[in-house]
Structures are given as structure tokens and as C-alpha cells.
Design a protein that fits this description.
The chain has helices spanning 27-30, 57-66, 68-83, 86-109, 127-144, 151-165, 168-174, 180-201, 204-216, 247-254; strands at residues 38-41, 48-51. The protein is mainly alpha-helical. A two-stranded antiparallel sheet has the order 1-2. Strand 1 (38-41) and strand 2 (48-51) form a beta hairpin. The protein is elongated.
Length: 261
């Protein structure tokens, strides 16, 4: 007869790239045993520990938020299939950017997770907190600087995003997968990565490269940045006539009729 608390049970094996240094392994893992506190559940990048005891409504809420990175990847994939937008494509290099940062930082700190976790990778910093706060910072910057959105739309978007992203770090402490210092460190690194990502995307070279990508792949929709129409003046074009420096090109730019001589 199944235990009533085993409904969410889903065994999880961490990818090799996410497994920690030997110094991060808990004693039960070093001895080749099973986790005495529960079991590793979820799916990468949304793995979490489902406890054997003390399960209540808060546990289910924390499990939902711990799965948020997985939901974000799924949502971005479905959004791209629906819109074929450049903006949705940017989510995937962003996820890779976050994964690389988490991997390098965990290798640098090699701090184990707190007692009670069934995950065996290093715990400092929290990858969930880093990724969720980085995503929130990126979205917040995009929305705050979008001239096409009014104040009400900005507040609504920030409120909804915050509800889904900000509690992710809290959920990791509820399930004993991270300590508060690990969550706070991940949040701080996430803020830095979010700001850097936004700055990188809004450099002139990156915006031009995105337009060039859309020109090469016409099935893509150029929906980034939100105020994309402001950059229409420098949309990449193939040269016409005898080149951009020709008399006809200069006449077209100045609004004067081209010379027929």
C-alpha cells in the first residue's frame, strides 16, 4: 500500500555537470547509501528534496517554486514555438549564461548543502536563487525602460514576475536544499548577472547582430527590444546600385531626386 505522502515522488539523477566536488558529498552518498531524509525529485534544472516527514501545504508550495526553473525553460520553449521571436531565442543563451555561472561558482566555493538535502552537488551559491533573481532583474530592466508600456502595465508585469520568481530562494530553505547564506549569495550573483545581461543585449553591436539574424532567418520575428521600431533607421540592408556610397544612395538618404547622368 502506497504511503499518502509519496504522490509527488519522482527519482532524479543529477547531470554530471551539476554533480559536486567530492568535498560536497554528504556522508550517506560517500558510503553509497540512500538519502535518509527523503528523495531527490523534480527535473533538471528544477531538482529538489521531497522530505520523508513533516509534509504539509508549505512543502507543496516550496516544491512548486523549486520547479520554477524547469517551468521557465518550458514556457520559453513554447513561447518561441508560438511567436518564433528573437526575444524568446534570447532566453536560451541566458539559461546557458546562468548555468555556466552556477557551475563555476560552485566549483570555486565547494560548500556542501545543509543537512536534510538529498541533492549531492555543492550548495554555494544557490543556483535556483541565482537564476530566478537574474531573470527577474533582466525582465524588470526591460519593462522599466520600455517606452511602449504605460505605468500600469509596468507595475502589473513586475508584480506577476515577482510573485513567480522572488520566492524561489525561500523554497530552497524550506526543503533544506540550501541555507539562507547560500540563497542570499545566489541572489546577489543573480542581480549582477541580470544587469550584465541587460547591458550586453542593449549594446549597439548586439542589437545589430539580432537584426542581422532575423534578416538571415526570415521566419523569425524581430520582437526585441520592446521598442524595436526605434532602431529601424539602421536595419541591415543589402547594398543597391553601386553601393552605399553611390550618388543614388546618397540622394535617397537626403530625399533629393537621383541624378540620371
Amino acid at each position: 500500500e502506497a504511503h499518502p505522502q509519496e504522490a509527488p515522488r519522482c527519482y532524479y539523477s543529477q547531470p554530471a555537470t551539476m554533480q559536486g566536488d567530492a568535498t560536497c558529498l554528504p556522508d550517506w552518498a560517500k558510503e553509497g547509501g540512500s538519502c535518509p531524509y527523503g528523495w531527490a525529485s523534480g527535473s533538471h534544472p528544477g531538482a529538489y528534496t521531497w522530505p520523508n516527514e513533516g509534509v504539509n501545504l508549505i512543502t507543496y508550495v516550496a516544491a512548486f517554486y523549486s520547479l520554477m526553473p524547469f517551468f521557465i525553460v518550458l514556457f520559453a520553449t513554447l513561447a518561441f514555438l508560438w511567436t518564433r521571436g528573437v526575444r524568446e531565442i534570447l532566453a536560451f543563451p541566458f539559461f546557458s549564461w546562468v548555468e555556466l555561472a552556477v557551475f563555476l561558482l560552485k566549483k570555486a566555493f565547494t560548500m556542501p548543502r545543509p543537512q536534510g538535502s538529498c541533492l549531492t552537488s555543492c550548495g554555494m551559491p544557490s543556483g535556483h536563487a541565482l537564476g530566478s533573481i537574474a531573470a527577474f532583474a533582466w525582465i524588470a530592466l526591460e519593462v522599466s525602460n520600455a517606452k511602449l508600456l504605460d505605468t500600469k502595465q509596468r507595475r502589473m508585469t513586475l508584480c506577476i514576475t515577482g510573485i513567480f520568481f522572488i520566492p524561489v530562494g525561500w523554497s530552497r530553505t524550506v526543503l533544506n536544499d540550501h541555507s539562507w547564506p547560500q540563497v542570499l549569495a545566489g541572489s546577489a550573483f543573480g542581480l549582477i548577472l541580470g544587469f550584465l545581461w541587460y547591458w550586453l543585449l542593449n549594446t549597439r553591436v548586439t542589437l545589430w547582430a539580432l537584426k542581422l539574424l532575423q534578416a538571415w532567418l526570415p521566419f523569425l520575428t524581430l520582437n526585441y527590444p520592446l521598442d524595436v521600431t526605434e532602431e529601424a533607421a539602421w536595419t541591415p540592408q543589402a547594398p543597391q546600385g553601386d553601393g552605399y556610397g553611390s550618388t543614388s544612395a546618397k540622394a535617397e538618404q537626403s530625399g533629393l531626386p537621383a541624378s540620371n547622368s
